[in-house]
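Following up on my earlier thread - several people asked me to post the actual chain instead of describing it. Fair enough. Here it is, all 152 residues.
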Amino acid sequence: MALRITVAPSKVVLQNFLICVILFYAVYYAVLGMGCMTLKVYELDVLAPFDFKTNPSWLNTNYKVLLVSTEVTYFVCGFLFILVVEEWVWDYAISVTILHVAITSTVMLEFPLTSHWWAALGSGLILMICGGQTLAYCLFKDNFIYPDLEEF
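Reply from S.P.:
Thanks for posting it. Predicted structure:
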């Protein structure tokens, strides 16, 4: 056998995923609330994290709140996921993002095709993975899982 990786039991993976999803949306709504208070936006509803139909304009305060809260949420969650999943931040980041896209499609009753929404989501995901994985590597450098490629 060339590659030996211990796979966590499915219950642990599912539990970690559920914690990451709850953490993601808790941070999202907290940052969204702070953004609304800071920019004095009083018209966003509970479904704001799933809104991809807002007009993308720097003059539109609602759009700025949604964009900034998305980016800040992804950035902060990249670091918070380390507390739950240690060095597997990239895997859970992608999984949470896929679930977010599915929930967004379900809530809005259509698949998001707007390029500005995908750009914000993609850049946030890159922030989450790069920031989280870098910090995870620094924190768990001695315990990081490396594949055994000598016999490959």
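The radius of gyration is 18 Å. That should answer part of your original question.
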